[in-house]
């Protein structure tokens, strides 16, 4: 018996075999189908996909053989990988290299062997696709061609498997990165929420004291003006803090304190406060309230904040001059309240409207408009959550001949678990 010498590039070949990460893996249908087909086409009882490593030949797929591997020094495949063509032994009993080989003299009693080398991505031979018989035989030209074609398919399976493994690794890395980023984002959100909650108390104190100061008589005009500026700045920051806290947590509905109230009174209150902010502004504010059903069951404070945020957004993007902001209220059909805030500011492209109420998307998602940036994005995200919590709808549309209209509809008397006890 002659033992096959090492491959001329044995170290590189073994390294390439290791990169396949295939040794000692479970059977796979892609390889098993090719092995069965080789056995059928060549008319042999045994067919193998054999991979030759340091000390053995290991069978990734096998037909007609129970053992999963044999020692390398006994392997016919160790001889086959030294060449590039089909390696054939028609009768092992008459071949001095194999006549006394234990695989010939004992089980599996190899008499005929034909193995086509299979290559890895490196171009080096990893092993063979081989067929074995217990009797001497000769392959026809068609069978030789078929075995060669099937060998190429085994190589393709190896490359496909390698690509799949690489994709799985990349996906695992991406999942790990996403988990890490999500954890960082969660920690950042928790910190922001803590800071924002801590801001609320001092801001409320500033607003209370500013209101108290403004009602004191006989104060100099410059003191009143400075106090109004302090009040307006604190009020704006207080709204931003509240919007940030309420715009997040999209997976949970906002808690509601729903009670019956007169929508006329709420609209008058919001309009009065908004008019006071426009005392020194050339912008105009108008109302158009036509309510048949003024009695509304809702969370009054949340609805007030929605209107203030929508009015503030329209006021911010309305040009100084003759431009105006309009608050409208109507009952388009029985049981529905519709509120519209119209302005004459810049238009919002249709592509931007789909993301206008998303709190966490970057500004690049709203091309061609600056109307959904920073605090305004948080304000609009809060408005959507608050309206949806009431079972209503919020959308934006064109305000002809220019500007936009933010529109919301609410059921006048909503029903469901959120409103039980209202």
Summary keywords:
422 residues, alpha+beta, 10 helices
Note the run of SSEs as H and E: HHEEEHEHEEHHEHEEHEEHHEE
Give the biggest beta sheet: 6 strands, antiparallel
Q: What is the overall silhouette?
A: rod-shaped
Mean pLDDT: 87
How many helical elements? Answer: 10
Radius of gyration of CA atoms, rounded to a whole number = 40 Å
Strand content: 15-25%
Structural classification: alpha+beta
Q: Could you give the order of strands across the largest sheet?
A: 3-2-1-6-5-4
Question: Can you describe what's shown?
Answer:
The strands form 3 sheets. The protein has a 6-stranded antiparallel sheet. A 5-stranded mixed sheet has the order 8-10-11-13-12. With 422 residues, it is an alpha+beta fold. About 2% of the residues have low confidence. 44% of the residues lie in helices and 19% in strands. Helix 5 runs antiparallel to helix 6, helix 6 packs across helix 10 and helix 7 packs parallel to helix 8. Strand 2 and strand 3 form a beta hairpin.
């Amino acid at each position: 018996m002659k033992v096959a010498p090492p491959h001329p590039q044995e170290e590189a070949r073994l390294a390439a075999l290791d990169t396949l990460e295939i040794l000692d893996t479970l059977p796979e249908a892609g390889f098993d189908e090719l092995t069965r087909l080789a056995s059928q086409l060549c008319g042999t009882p045994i067919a193998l996909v054999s991979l030759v490593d340091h000390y053995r030949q290991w069978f990734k797929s096998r037909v007609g053989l129970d053992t999963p591997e044999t020692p390398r020094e006994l392997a016919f495949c160790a001889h086959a990988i030294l060449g590039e063509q089909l390696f054939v032994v028609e009768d092992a009993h008459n071949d001095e290299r194999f006549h006394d080989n234990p695989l010939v003299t004992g089980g599996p009693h190899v008499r005929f062997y034909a193995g086509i080398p299979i290559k890895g991505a490196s171009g080096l031979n990893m092993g063979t696709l081989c067929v074995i018989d217990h009797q001497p035989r000769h392959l026809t030209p068609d069978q030789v061609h078929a075995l060669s074609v099937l060998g190429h398919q085994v190589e393709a399976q190896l490359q496909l498997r390698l690509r799949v493994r690489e994709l799985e690794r990349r996906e695992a890395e991406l999942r790990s990165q996403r988990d890490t980023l999500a954890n960082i984002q969660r920690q950042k959100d928790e910190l922001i929420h803590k800071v924002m909650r801590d801001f609320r108390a001092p801001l409320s104190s500033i607003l209370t004291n500013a209101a108290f100061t403004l009602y004191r008589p006989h104060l100099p005009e410059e003191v009143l003006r400075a106090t109004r500026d302090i009040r307006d700045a604190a009020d704006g920051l207080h709204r931003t803090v509240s919007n940030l806290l309420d715009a997040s947590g999209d997976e949970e509905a906002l808690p509601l304190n729903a009670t019956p109230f007169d929508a006329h009174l709420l609209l008058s209150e919001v309009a009065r406060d908004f008019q006071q902010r426009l005392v020194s502004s050339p912008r105009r504010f108008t109302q158009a309230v036509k309510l048949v059903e003024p009695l509304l069951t809702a969370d009054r404070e949340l609805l007030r904040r929605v209107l203030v945020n929508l009015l503030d957004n329209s006021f911010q993007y309305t040009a100084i001059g003759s431009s105006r902001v309009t608050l409208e209220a109507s009952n388009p059909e029985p049981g529905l309240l519709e509120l519209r805030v119209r302005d004459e500011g810049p238009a919002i492209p249709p592509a931007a409207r789909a993301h206008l109420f998303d709190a966490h998307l970057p500004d690049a998602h709203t091309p061609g408009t600056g109307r959904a940036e920073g605090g305004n994005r948080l304000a609009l995200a809060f408005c959507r959550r608050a309206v949806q919590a009431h079972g209503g709808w919020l959308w934006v549309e064109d305000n002809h001949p220019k500007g936009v209209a933010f529109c919301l509809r609410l059921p006048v008397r909503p029903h469901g678990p959120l409103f039980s006890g209202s």
